[in-house]
Amino acid sequence: MMAPDFLWLHLKEVPAFRALLRAVEARFYQGLEMPEPVLDLGCGDGHFASLAFPRRAWVGLDPEWGPLKEAAARRAYRWVVQADGARMPFPSSFFGTVVSNSVLEHIPPVEAVLAEVARVLRPGGFFLFCSPSHRFVEFLSLYRLLRRLRLPRPAEAYGRLFNRISRHDHCDAPEVWAARLERAGLRPLRWWFYFSPGATALLEWGHPYGLPSLIFKKLFGRWILAPWRWSLWPVERILRPFYEEPPGLEGAYFFMIAQKEGGG
To answer: What is the model's pTM?
Structure first.
């Protein structure tokens, strides 16, 4: 069976910069082993899970009630739960899979969340997550330009600003995350990088161009007012080569698969 066109599915519903990143990530879940029950940690509005997960997840958990109401209306999960990821209201060893897609980088006390992930996973269960890597700032186009112009201080200031706009508390190498996981009792199995400098530049400059979509969302409850091929094809044509890029030896992001120790 052919995989869905995740780029188009995202592009017709969310801003272009978010559509590209989430479409690339959605492809990673296809064919992955995801034993049930599945918990989506930091699920937000449920849009990503409704498109990316092969089956409907059991539980979507998020600390914010507003996005959870959208997730419930979208029927992305069997249940939605409002709770802090460091204090999850579930019994130990309950879930077969925990997914956290581009969430952990926004959580300052992330070690407490990883400990909870290990607690609620059953032995042998899988933890799937992705995060910006240590190369994120280096891949930003304006950062690279300022460095080429031998302006290191403005470059570093821009990197800090963009991380603040993106609400990034962590942009770490996979090896740093692997050490955190092992301390929590989760064994890293494999990871891969994605998002080239070109893709990252589109993400970077897509933020200001996405401001009208933010206005539409607040006024009309929708990010995209004209979700049709004829209106979106110019953007789709620009994004598609980057959507189709294979994972590389380095990238602005990485995807990791870990397993709770004690499985057969």
So the answer is: 0.94
Q: State the DSSP H helix or E strand holding residue 259, giving kind and residue range, or none if neither.
A: strand 253-260
Question: Which secondary structure element, helix H or strand E, spans residue 220, and what is its range?
Answer: helix 211-220
Which residue in the block uniquely carries the two structure tokens 């190369």? 135
Q: What are 223's two structure tokens? A: 């990010």
Q: How much is the mean pLDDT over the chain?
A: 93
Residues 6+ apart with CB under 8 A from 225: 216
Q: Is 170 helix (H, G, I), strand (E, B) or coil?
A: coil
Burial 126-136 (b: 16+ CB within 10 A, else e): bbbbbbbbbbb
Within 133-244, strands assigned E span 186-194
Cβ atoms of 7 and 19 within 8 Å: the answer is yes
Q: Taking Cα atoms as reference points, which of 251, 230, 210, 153 lies closest to residue 19?
A: 210
Q: Please, are residues 128 and 191 in contact by the beta-carbon 8 Å criterion? A: no
Query: In whole angstroms, what is the distance from residue 103 CA to residue 222 CA?
Result: 22
Q: Following DSSP, what letter does each residue of 12-56 receive, concatenated?
A: TTS-HHHHHHHHHHHHHTTT---PSSEEEET-TTSHHHHHH-SS-
Give per-residue pLDDT as tens, 64-88.
999 999 999 999 899 999 999 999 9
Do 71 and 43 touch, CB atoms closer than 8 A? yes
H or E stretch covering 239? helix 229-243
